[in-house]
Design goal:
It is built from 15 helices and 13 strands. The chain is an alpha/beta fold. The strands form 2 sheets. It has a 7-stranded parallel sheet. It has a 6-stranded parallel sheet with strand order 10-9-8-11-12-13, sandwiched between helices. Strand 4, helix 4 and strand 5 form a beta-alpha-beta unit. Helix 1 packs across helix 15 and helix 8 packs across helix 13. The radius of gyration is 21 Å and the shape is globular.
């Protein structure tokens, strides 16, 4: 069985998940390829990514569409992209010869119409890393219920352009209506339920929940020392200024618990930023991880990862932290609670600073080996590759 993965870029959470699934499938001796518009060589797996060649006019058009959607269509800071150009070469040998076409991130790589209509007999899989596919363009719906009524009054889009969102959503619903060869893979039960609600006439058997694969942290675990006097909290985001990731709430909570116990806690924040947070907070260490290996090394120095997101599907970093034996504190939103519950970790109400403070003050040092072993069963390459092959094989059986 030949699988081809489509992803716009090799950076970001969706791309990271696609590359890791590709690695897992290769390790299980399956025929897997990835096609992307952009490629950043970070590790050996990126060498297998085929970079799609696009001419200059198409790149200029792509940039223009991105500008149009961010500056004119989108209302506020939350991404909305109802327009997606079709830059993929559908005659590419990897696409043409594939038994399964697996779409991970499609913005300005494929149009939904062509993805669903071209090669009608091929098996099609869509991993819902965000909500864009079923909302008509809204990446994060913030639990908006308009997916049940057609998204005709999307609050994240300026009024003159709202029809673009509702029309795109209607088109997708019409296109998948009779497509038995399409399966939606959902990294969390939360997004699975949202997708099923958005496509009420699509068979429930065509929605499956499979976690994104996470590589095992092969670095030696930090041993839990009963004499250790400090507990290290951690926060990871591609951009520290991303409001959805909600670093400010954690900083406020950390400042308060530091006043209560000045020598008990420290905080490591990981991500890109022009601001030096460590200058204002002496117990904060600020770092940037340019590769997965660097992030694994940083995670070894942390005890508890805090995920205070205002809205999230299921961040890859939660799996990465568990694979490194870390404990978790997470906000009650999106797919975060199901992982918190599965691993018996700490949960607090979304945006509740007092609840976060209580969770931080109540936490204990984790049993790293036990957590890592459980995480391998849930997120490990071997387990996820087996589940995905079953998904690929079950379509049109």
């Amino acid at each position: 069985m030949k699988i081809v993965h489509l992803v716009t870029s090799t950076t970001g959470g969706a791309a990271q998940a696609a590359i890791r699934l590709h690695e897992a499938l290769l390790a299980a001796s399956h025929d897997s390829n990835i096609i992307s518009i952009e490629r950043r060589v970070e590790n050996s797996s990126s060498d297998f990514v085929k970079k799609l060649k696009t001419n200059r006019p198409r790149r200029v058009l792509s940039s223009a569409v991105t500008f149009l959607q961010r500056r004119i269509i989108q209302r506020g800071n939350n991404p909305v992209s109802p327009i997606s150009l079709d830059l993929l070469d559908w005659d590419d040998v990897h696409v043409e010869s594939a038994d399964v076409i697996h779409l991970h991130a499609f913005y300005n790589l494929v149009s939904v119409r062509n993805f669903l209509s071209r090669y009608p007999l091929k098996r099609k899989v869509v991993t819902l890393h965000d909500e864009r596919f079923y909302t008509g363009g809204c990446h994060q719906s913030f639990d908006c219920e308009q997916i049940s009524t057609g998204c005709k009054h999307c609050p994240q889009v300026h009024p003159p352009f709202r029809s673009l969102v509702s029309n795109q959503r209607s088109q997708v619903i019409e296109l998948i209506r009779d497509k038995e060869n399409v399966v939606f893979v959902c990294p969390s039960m939360w997004i699975l339920k949202r997708a099923m609600k958005s496509f009420p006439d699509f068979p429930s058997t065509n929605f499956v929940q499979v976690y994104n694969p996470i590589p095992k942290n092969k670095l030696p675990l930090e041993s839990n020392n009963d004499l250790k006097k400090e507990i290290g909290f951690g926060f990871v985001s591609q951009s520290l200024e991303n409001p959805i990731k909600n670093l400010n709430l954690l900083l406020e909570a950390f400042e308060e618990i530091s006043r209560i116990h000045p020598d008990r806690y420290y905080l490591t924040i990981v991500g890109e930023s022009d601001k030096d947070y460590s200058r204002d907070y002496p117990k904060i260490m600020q770092k940037v991880a340019s590769s997965s290996l660097e992030l694994q090394e940083i995670l070894r120095s942390i005890d508890i990862l805090v995920v205070p997101s205002t809205h999230d599907n299921l961040p890859n970093v939660m799996g990465e932290a568990l694979m490194s034996g870390l404990g978790l504190i997470g906000s009650k939103t999106g797919g975060i609670p199901e992982i918190i519950g599965l691993f018996d970790q700490s949960l607090f109400e979304n945006g509740d600073k007092r609840g976060l403070i209580q969770a931080m003050l109540s936490c204990e040092l984790p049993d790293r080996a036990q957590i890592q072993n459980q995480a391998e069963i849930v997120f490990g390459y071997k387990a996820i590759a087996a589940k995905m092959v079953q998904v690929y094989s079950s379509i049109l059986e």
